[in-house]
């Protein structure tokens, strides 16, 4: 069995190799069942290999060719190959896998809708979706400044739609902010980033490094000219006047501890 092979091999490995938890399978000679090992190979490992493959005493090993011997040697080499593959997979960065999964679209889970305004730090106004035209000149409570934000995945990817016009905020390949009636394109998906100063930045999911930004006059800035540390791309979420959060808060219920009921004892 594989467990017997591993236990037999580890008894003959150096301490450094055993500490790393990896088997130096490359030490096996090409002439695996030969009595002579070329220079530069591990004699200890070859000795352990012979004891496992041939199942013979260590001092003297009768080297005979038989079908059962060939199967044992082949099984051992295949086992070493599997160990090398597993050792190579140990260096895989799991964070890359998580990042790729968070950027993938989630078409199964229920979408979460939020209604709020985005206050621009530079213009002092709110983002407006005026059909195909985008600006940051909306007053607090303006109907064109009310945005429906839909979560696209659990990785902070959102789609922003104007409540009044039902146009989506998008960024085309030139980096220009435009409004589109159909928001299924990846150009209409943005990644929310909460900065250290508690402001929010919106980076395009299609064009990495391009952010939603506005000038002091409320005009859109092109994506290639924006950076995360610029005040032009800093926004603050604000609810419209007289409106609270749409989501209902969690309600905690108190549960009284039930006492164990004592059965009455009947005299025998």
Automatic annotation (TrEMBL):
Main location: secreted
Name this polypeptide is given: Fibroblast growth factor
Organism in which the protein naturally occurs: Crocuta crocuta (Spotted hyena)
Gene Ontology molecular function, alphabetical: growth factor activity
InterPro entries to which the protein is assigned, alphabetical: Fibroblast_GF_fam, IL1/FGF
Organism classification: Eukaryota, Metazoa, Chordata, Craniata, Vertebrata
Pfam families xref list: FGF
Family from the record: Belongs to the heparin-binding growth factors family.
Region of interest called Disordered, as start-end residue ranges on this chain: 218-244
Protein localization: Secreted
